[in-house]
Amino acid sequence: QKEVEQNSGPLSVPEGAIASLNCTYSDRGSQSFFWYRQYSGKSPELIMSIYSNGDKEDGRFTAQLNKASQYVSLLIRDSQPSDSATYLCAVELTGGGNKLTFGTGTQLKVEL
Amino acid sequence: EPEVTQTPSHQVTQMGQEVILRCVPISNHLYFYWYRQILGQKVEFLVSFYNNEISEKSEIFDDQFSVERPDGSNFTLKIRSTKLEDSAMYFCASNGANEQYFGPGTRLTVT
Q1: Most buried of the four, A32, A42, A91, B41, by CB within 10 Å?
Q2: Strand B106-110 versus strand B10-13 pairing type
């Protein structure tokens, strides 16, 4: 069973702080990694993709990948109340159109 | 910005009835997917579709389910003889170059 594991939270951070979200995966053949944001009752919204080891930054978001440790993380800098949502980690076994395997998601709450 | 659209947004049906969920993927995308999310649970893969045929399906996607791309734009999921446990959000997604974009979903309620 190929699994993607996330701490379900809730993770509470004060406004302006850095939120750190973590994900581990079991299949070493995984090639592509994604972070989606899901507001309650809405669909997953892609916020970051990462394919190689290291960091990838996009605005306030930084994705980090360590394939040796089978670990991917998402940092959100200067957290805003609008960032309060569930963050889903998703993993694709090989590149090019294959299915995504999702974790259960981490609920983030940004407090005023 | 192009987006995936889905209709209806909410479908209520009685147990044993057939439903068709519709999706219009992003126009130049080549890969299409259906996922479902039961309330409070994780997003689960159902089926992927490429070049007018199923490329992969999960154990959930049994003979009760079928997919079709009846024309150049629509992508449909048919669920025959619905059961109570089919109640969920059903998401369509499409992929042009490595990234999957999700539609807003159809909430299916089976009574």
Answers
A1: A91
A2: parallel
